[in-house]
Amino acid sequence: MSEKPVSERIVSWHSSPSKPRYTPPPGAVDAHCHVFGPMAEFPFSPKAKYIPEDAGPDQLFALRDHLGFSKNVIVQASCHGTNNAATLNAIAEAGGTDGVPNARGVAVVDPDISEDELAALHEGGMRGIRFNFLKRLVDNAPKDKFLEVSRRLPSGWHVVIYFEADILEELRPFMDAIPVPIVVDHMGRPDVTQGPDGPDMRAFRRLLESREDIWFKPTCPDRLDPPRGGLGGDPWDAFAQAVRPLVEDYADRCIWGTDWPHPNMQDNVPDDGHLVDMIPRIAPSEELQRKLLIDNPMRLYWSD
Q: What is the DSSP secondary structure assignment for residue 3, as one 8-state letter?
């Protein structure tokens, strides 16, 4: 991936994504997406490692409708730091249907956040906090402070963790100590070319077996199965082969999302319609698809 000056704004999403061949069931949730800005109203963090062009609520909800989804879970993007105003605004802009909010969110917080501030985030539609351990995206990830704030979360919240496979074992004691449910972004970025029984997937299965309240997102084939020497890339066959058994074996603990607007993917922008067409390849039955897209995210984010 080419390095760009952090002051240069980037576009990491498809300007005209295709219409998926697969039609999600009514009520389907895109349970991992983001918004960027608009910068004029919601400035990016001074510590941001990338400065994207605006990708606001109107674009997100137009994509939701184009792809055939009904709801969104909007995850605070690292470029906004711990100021969750842009994500809260998007949740509010989503409105509701028959008294049920059309969006929920996952916040990024300063570990010293107060109970009143956490309550305000809950009122705004947040239902979890995210801990990011990707060094290229964050400068500091203090495990002791993360644990402290995880003990003070509002009832019903969970912790989302983003990490790469090579630090999974190092993080195990930290995750063991988290007292609320855990959701692992993008399965902890395994090497899917190892196949469903490769060392990365076996290590991830051991993590899932260690606690019944660890969930995961079988997402981001564009990140995990990129073009390489004539292999990989769309339609992401290695991803489908490696991930399908995981979804089948842990069907009650997975949720799916587009990852739009695909932070930092400006050099390999995926077609969102093709991402949606991955769903029946990793969840081949209607029952699995309903769990992945409706039952599981509703249980995790709309239980109240």
A: -
Domain annotation covers residue 291 = yes
Q: Is 293 helix (H, G, I), strand (E, B) or coil?
A: helix
With left for phi above 0 and alpha for psi between -120 and 50, is residue 133 left, alpha or beta? alpha
Q: What percent of the chain is modeled with pLDDT above 70? A: 96
Residues 91/104, Cβ–Cβ less than 8 Å = yes
What's the pLDDT tens digit per position in 129-161? 999 998 765 566 789 999 999 999 999 999 999
Q: Is 259 part of the annotated catalytic residue set? A: yes
User: Quick one: which of 70, 68, 46, 42 has its CA closest to 55?
Assistant: 42
Q: What is the dihedral of CA 288, 182, 273, 264, to 10 degrees?
A: -160
Full domain range(s) for residue 281: 9-301
| The total number of structural domains that make up the chain | 1
66 within domain boundaries = yes
What would the mean pLDDT of 175-184 be, rounded to a whole number?
98
Catalytic option among 185, 225, 259, 272: 259
β 71-75/100-101 pair status: unpaired
Question: Which pair of structure tokens corresponds to residue 49?
Answer: 């490692």
Convert the pLDDT of each residue in 229-252 to its tens digit.
888 999 999 999 999 999 999 999
Amino acid of residue 73: V
- For residue 4, the model assigns a pLDDT of 47
For residue 113, what is the enclosing H or E element? none
**CA–CA distance, 14 with 272 (Å, rounded to integer):** 7
234 within a domain of the structure (yes/no): yes
As a whole number of angstroms, the distance between CA 284 and CA 108 comes to: 34
41 occurs within a structural domain: yes
Instruction: Evaluate whether 75 touches 43 at the Cβ level (below 8 Å).
Output: no
> Residue 234: which CATH number?
3.20.20.140
* Closest to 72 measured CA to CA, from 52, 99, 45, 95: 95
